[in-house]
Amino acid sequence: MDRLSKANLISSFSGLAGASCAFGVFDGLHRGHRFIIDKAISYAKEKNIRSYIITFNVDPDEFFGRAGFKKIMSNDMRIKALSECGADGVIVLDFEKMHDLCAEDFLDEVFTSNVPEVISVGNDVRFGDRAAGDISTMQKWAREHGMKVHGFDLLKVDGSPVTSTRIRSLLEDGLIEEANELLGYPYTLVGNVVHGRGEGAQMGFRTANIEVQSDMFLLKEGVYAARAHVDGIDWAAAVSVGVSPTFQDRSSANVEVHIIDFEGDLYNDAIKISFLERIRDMIKFDDVDELIDRVNKDIAHARDAVKI
């Protein structure tokens, strides 16, 4: 099979035969996910065979509308990040078309025509209708079809498994540095700049206002030091997450970014924000002067904290 396209994605299952694969949803693509993916890629290099990452186009919890579910990454971000992991390709399965297949039928559908040499998964893997399939289901199917299963215990940091659930909890508590340690990179949001109140510019600190969709609004409200990526350039930034109590009666944007030393118009542009440190909680200020003084202190803190 020829090398894949620039996006490094494929939409069919052809080429899986004799390959080394990693399988999972991989929300957040954290260190535990990378551990399993790297095992699949290393095996492929050792055996001189191709490597693939198999995932779904949507998170199952998202598809079923689990109450309160929030994603670490958007689906597009997740699949793009997977395509940059070093595998020969990413196979994106349509979850809507496959969610009601029993575990054995799911394995038949994906692998029977092109049985991989090996598939790498976490030992907690679940798949098939009602998530009834597990590692033992996969191992039984593999024995019958000449495929190996490499099951791995969850990577542990500080004595506890690295999971997307654990990272979501840290983000919800505002523990950004601890979350970043488990992710292996700074937690990141991408959004389009929309028109805001315009009051920031009047006070001496322009902000880019971003509306983040509800299932991506995971980070605890507060003010953060961050890195803003705009048109290929990184800038230090102070970011307010959540609607400020001072402006809650006239604001809809839930992320406001002051990009330090940046000049220019960002309306309708997409910017990427990588969060590095939590500076403080949201505060309701008694007057404008108090607000300006506090925001200037936040900007100075972010300038010192963010290394560009």
Can you tag this structure with a few keywords?
six-stranded parallel sheet, six-stranded antiparallel β-barrel, alpha/beta, 308 residues
Based on CA atoms alone, the radius of gyration comes out at 22 Å
Global shape? elongated
Sheet with the most strands, sense and barrel status: 6 strands, parallel
Count of beta strands: 14
Number of helices: 10
% residues in beta strands:
15-25%
Structural class: alpha/beta
Distance between the termini: 41 Å
User: Order of strands across the biggest sheet?
Assistant: 1-4-3-2-5-6
Pick out the low-confidence regions.
1-11
Can you describe what's shown?
With 308 residues, the protein is an alpha/beta fold. It is built from ten helices and 14 strands. Strand 7 and strand 8 (160-161) form a beta hairpin. Residues 1-11 have low confidence and may be disordered.
In short:
By secondary structure, the chain is α/β, with parallel strands linked by helices. Helices cover 31% and strands 24% of the residues. The protein is built from ten helices and 14 strands.
